[in-house]
Amino acid sequence: MSFREILDSGKFAVTAEIGPPKGTDIKEMYHHIEVLKGKIDVANVTDNQSAVMRISSLAVCKIVLDNGMEPVLQMTCRDRNRIGLQADLLGASVLGIHNVLCLTGDHVNAGDHKQAKSVYDVESVQLLKIVEGMNNGKDMSGNEMKGATNFYAGAVVTPEANPLEPQLVKFEKKVKAGAKFFQTQAIYDMEKFKSFMTYARKFPVKMLAGIVVLKSAGMANFMNKNVPGITVPQDLIEELKAAGKEKALEAGINIAARHIKQLKDEKICDGVHIMAIGMEDKVPMIMERAGLL
Amino acid sequence: MITGEQKPFEEIWNMVKDFKKVLVFGCNTCVAVCHAGGGKEAEILASLLRMRAAQEGAAIEINHAAVERHCEPEFFQPVMDNVRTYDLILSTACGVGVNLLSENIGEIPVFPAINTEFFGAVPRAGEFTELCAGCGNCILHLTGGICPIARCSKSLLNGPCGGTNNGNCEVSPDIKCAWVQIYDRLKQLNRLDQMKEINEAKDWSKAQGPRNFKVKVLEEIKK
Question: Tell me, what's the ipTM?
Answer without folding.
Answer: 0.95
